[in-house]
Write a structure and sequence with these properties.
single chain, about 450 residues, three-stranded mixed sheet, 10 strands
């Protein structure tokens, strides 16, 4: 595998194009072979899955080599567990984070020198040239400061900003993959624009340092079970971020915790999400498992490159959506949904009513008294069933805010589902949504 990071427009275009062409051609060939053998095959679904895994491997390997937007797309898919893609393919996307090829040592040294005019062996007392983690924007190394503290040093891939811009210019190239999964896809231009803005913000580690400090200060008194690393600004630049080294267990390791411990972690994560959304109006929006470590009574948040502010007006409308569900008010639901571009202005009332009933069924268990885990129902199956008879092609997607809001919500959902956390849903809602709810009700009397 070529470990040279590809940042030029042409090299990224050719690499992605080659991968998609090979994967698509192989898939087409295998499908043709499969059709000839279907009558002899007792379980064609298993064979079809095998063909898709085969094609996916080629594309996923390329995503890991290209980093940037392509790898970020893979990471976003990785949090879905088996809710969107078959479990076997989702696991391939999770492996993307572990097996992505690292930067060459010379590039690591150059990136540090460009920021501090010193090479790592001078800047730090100790510096491990082998990365401990790879991400879409940069990779992490362990080091020791001359003052003795162990630190994590996140180093940005060279020319990653240009690479991301090129990725978005080439985004139409992945239509081959998208159409295999969603042939009736809507117009998602505004969501692509939101993703681009978010990714380019992630490329500025000074911005990430500011976000990390904001959340650390905001959580310290209300959520002492959250650990957010200390930042070392004198060893931080737009391309290098140095923070406290904190040890912990991976999410996968927490699945072996006691149920009481998983209940505590789940309740803490849920209430922190509600506090961040309703009271801070700002969310951490990159919930992939690699951005967290855990102890039995602690949640360690490591990466604040992706965050999202939400305006008071948007939060009021979002609150009204929940109130419409809680009060069985389909007229209010339709009106606010149209305002938020969930539905077209001339949407049929019957369609809105059907959507309302599905969302109410999904949300209902979390609006009742009692302590209970996430329900077993796959929400995406219900949504997919609803969408089967709707012409999505060319339809405008919802407001930009929903991309990162839903991404954050979905990441929370998959963690709580994996833990089977027993949670008092109403307690958290009433504790942190109360103030904006009162304001909304006063305005709608």
């Amino acid at each position: 595998m070529n470990d040279q990071f590809k940042s030029s427009k042409l090299s990224r275009f050719l690499t992605l194009g080659s991968s998609l062409t090979k994967a698509s051609a192989q898939l087409a060939l295998d499908v043709a072979k499969n059709k000839a053998q279907t009558l002899m095959d007792r379980n064609p679904e298993i064979k079809d899955l095998g063909l898709k895994i085969k094609a996916s491997k080629e594309i996923i390997q390329t995503m890991g080599e290209l980093k940037g937007a392509m790898m970020k797309l893979g990471q976003m898919i990785s949090i879905s567990d088996d809710l969107i893609l078959p479990k076997e393919i989702s696991e391939l996307f999770r492996d993307l984070q572990k097996n992505s090829p690292p930067m060459p040592d010379a590039e690591v040294r150059r990136m540090i020198f460009e920021s501090f005019n010193k090479y790592p062996e001078v800047l730090f007392l100790e510096f491990n040239p082998k990365p401990v983690a790879a991400a879409s924007i940069g990779q992490v190394h362990k080091a020791k400061l001359h003052s003795g503290e162990d630190v994590a040093v996140k180093i940005q891939y060279p020319k990653i900003v240009n690479a991301i811009k090129y990725d978005f210019q080439n985004l139409h190239k992945i239509d081959t993959l998208v159409h295999l999964l969603y042939p009736n896809k809507p117009n998602i231009d505004n969501l692509i624009a939101e993703l681009k803005t978010s990714l380019l913000e992630e490329c500025n580690y000074i911005h990430e340092m500011e976000q990390l400090r904001f959340f650390k200060e905001s959580y310290k008194d209300i959520f002492p079970m959250f650990l957010i690393p200390q930042i070392y600004p004198e060893f931080t630049s737009e391309q290098v971020l140095t923070m406290e080294w904190i040890e912990g267990d991976s999410y996968e390791e927490t699945l072996n915790y006691t149920q009481e411990e998983k209940d505590f972690l789940g309740s803490s994560l849920y209430e922190c999400f509600l506090f961040s959304l309703w009271e801070l109006g700002r969310l951490h929006t990159d919930p992939q498992n690699g951005n967290y470590l855990f102890k039995r009574d602690k949640i360690i948040m490591l990466d604040f490159g992706s965050t999202r502010n939400f305006s008071k007006d948007f939060l009021k409308d979002y609150c009204l959506l929940f109130l419409s569900l809680e009060n069985s008010d389909v007229e209010l639901y339709g009106r606010i949904s149209k305002k938020l571009d969930v539905f077209k202005p001339d949407e049929k009332e019957e369609l809105i009513a059907r959507h309302f009933e599905i969302i109410k069924k999904l949300y209902g268990p979390y609006a009742e008294e009692g302590i209970r885990p996430i329900t077993d129902a796959n929400p995406l199956d219900m949504i997919r069933e609803f969408l089967k008879d709707i012409e999505l092609k060319g339809r405008k997607s919802p407001r930009q805010e929903f991309l990162l809001l839903d991404r954050s919500t979905f990441g929370l959902y998959t963690k709580l589902k994996g833990w089977k956390s027993r949670i008092n849903w109403l307690h958290g809602r009433n504790k942190f949504r109360n103030s904006i709810e009162i304001e909304v009700k006063i305005n709608h009397q």
